[in-house]
């Protein structure tokens, strides 16, 4: 098959879906790899590197989409303003797409995909099973985001993270509170610990306590809700009553911490509000909140997307797509994940899809003009 790697057109996007070192892996199975000129530049991968790896460089998106039988991109398709066409309309009818297709983008994209009989695979719908771990883009990007969030907090905080014993006196370590200890939260805990901070964390899923403690952080005590996890490994949406109790427990910690990293999310839903404006007022002057859930509504009432807000002496930074700030490794991880998924779905060069396979069935969003993924089908019906 002819596999096309386009340049991402979403504003601010720096990552590329497939990096040069993965080109030979795809070619080994007999595929051709076409790369739009400049696709990897913002992630520090040149056209020459792609060429040396065996890819063909194509000038311009129109030519790439016209030729590719499979398009592998990072972001969900959107309108290409310079070509005045939606990226799905640039694709060949009946071709295949691998990209992010988060629920929020679906209403604007799904009809295009159905009309053009595109077989699409959404990286968000990889099942959370051991077999699919090497394909899990969400985990990869959460790893990058959790790491970078701590660096952003350190950048905005006017304090050292570690304990320092200097001739000018002893400086105590800062305290970092991490809310939500999934993939991003655990990486934030590990990064803050490496920088020498004292770390405390909370997550309503009971299994998380041990993971938090094994990283050397303190688990914040509060009552855990019942029936907290979906079969897919995600947290369920919590009742307002539970969230109120959780906010009270967090409020008791806020005056004592220097930085807060919030990562609490409920897949496909608004993120829970964990820090209200009144709670921010109680924090020490100079403290920092980095909210990784801002794109889904935010865990802090004051968060604004990618814009630091300074209020009551506290800096609140709502980070959207923060993984873009580490484009080399974010692209490398995505590249490995998506290539593994592609090779799993097209185990031979025949394009017969095996819908008995759990990974194929759950990642496939559209095929032959129909919605395949159950969750997406329900979401679209609810939107109507
Ligand atoms: P996520 O990004 O959807 O959510 C982040 C975290 O927010 C989760 O840990 C969730 O429990 C937490 N959260 C939700 N409501 C909260 C609240 N009110 N207060 C505080 N925290 C709240 O989730 P994620 O990080 O992508 O994944 C969650 C878990 O899924 C992982 O920790 C892991 O156990 C599991 N997982 C399994 C696999 C696999 O087996 N292949 C892959 C990835 C993740």
Which structural class fits the helix and strand makeup? alpha/beta
Name the CATH class of the largest domain.
Alpha Beta
Strand count, sense and barrel status of the largest sheet are:
8 strands, mixed
Present as ligands are: nicotinamide-adenine-dinucleotide
CATH architecture of the largest domain: 3-Layer(aba) Sandwich
Q: Return the average pLDDT rounded to an integer.
A: 94
How would you describe the shape?
globular
Strand order of the largest sheet: 3-2-1-4-7-8-18-19
CATH domain topology of the largest domain:
Rossmann fold
- Say which CATH homologous superfamily of the largest domain is assigned: NAD(P)-binding Rossmann-like Domain
Radius of gyration: 22 Å
Distance between the termini: 36 Å
Q: Could you estimate the helical fraction of the residues in percent?
A: 25-40%
What does this structure look like?
The chain has 13 helices and 19 strands. The chain is of the alpha/beta class and 384 residues long. It folds into 2 domains: 2-134 and 327-383, Rossmann fold (3-Layer(aba) Sandwich); 142-325, NAD(P)-binding Rossmann-like Domain (Rossmann fold), CATH 3.40.50. Strands 3-2-1-4-7-8-18-19 form an 8-stranded mixed β-sheet. It has a 7-stranded mixed β-sheet with strand order 13-12-11-14-15-17-16, covered by helices on one side. A hairpin with a 2-residue loop joins β16 and β17 (314-318). Residues 128-130, 132-133, 136, 138-139, 142, 179-185, 202-205, 233-235, 238, 246, 263-267, 272, 274 line the site of nicotinamide-adenine-dinucleotide.
């Amino acid at each position: 098959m002819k596999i096309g790697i386009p340049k991402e057109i979403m504003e601010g996007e720096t990552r590329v879906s497939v990096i040069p070192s993965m080109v030979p892996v795809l070619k080994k199975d007999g595929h051709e790899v076409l790369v739009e000129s400049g696709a990897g530049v913002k992630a520090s991968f040149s056209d020459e590197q792609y060429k040396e790896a065996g890819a063909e460089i194509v000038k311009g998106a129109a030519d790439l989409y016209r030729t590719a039988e499979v398009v592998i991109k990072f972001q969900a398709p959107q309108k290409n303003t310079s070509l005045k066409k939606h990226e799905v309309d640039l694709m060949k009818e009946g071709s295949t797409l691998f990209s992010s297709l988060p629920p929020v983008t679906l209403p604007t994209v799904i009809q295009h995909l159905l009309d053009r009989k595109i077989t699409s695979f959404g990286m968000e719908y990889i099942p959370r099973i051991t077999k699919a771990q090497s394909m899990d883009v969400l985990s990869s990007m959460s790893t990058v985001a959790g790491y970078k969030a701590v660096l952003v907090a350190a950048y905005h905080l006017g304090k050292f993270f570690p304990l320092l014993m200097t001739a000018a006196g002893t400086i105590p370590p800062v305290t970092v509170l991490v809310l939500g200890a999934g993939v991003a939260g655990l990486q934030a805990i590990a990064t803050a610990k490496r920088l020498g901070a004292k770390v405390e964390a909370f997550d309503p899923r009971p299994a998380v306590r041990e993971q938090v403690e094994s990283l050397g952080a303190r688990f914040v005590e509060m009552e855990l809700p019942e029936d907290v996890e979906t079969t897919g490994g995600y947290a369920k949406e919590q009742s307002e009553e539970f969230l109120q109790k959780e906010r009270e427990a967090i409020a008791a910690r806020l005056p004592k911490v220097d930085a807060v990293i919030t990562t609490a999310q409920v897949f496909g839903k608004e993120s829970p509000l964990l820090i209200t404006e009144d709670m921010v007022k109680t924090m020490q002057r100079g403290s920092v909140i980095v909210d990784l859930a801002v794109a889904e509504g935010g865990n802090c009432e004051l968060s604004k997307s990618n814009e630091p807000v300074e209020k009551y002496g506290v800096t609140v930074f709502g980070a959207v797509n923060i993984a873009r700030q580490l484009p080399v490794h974010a692209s490398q991880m995505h590249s490995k994940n998506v290539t593994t998924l592609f090779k799993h779905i097209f185990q031979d060069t025949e394009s017969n899809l095996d819908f008995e396979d759990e990974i194929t069935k759950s990642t496939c969003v559209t095929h032959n003009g129909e919605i395949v993924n159950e969750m997406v089908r329900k979401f679209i019906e609810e939107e109507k």
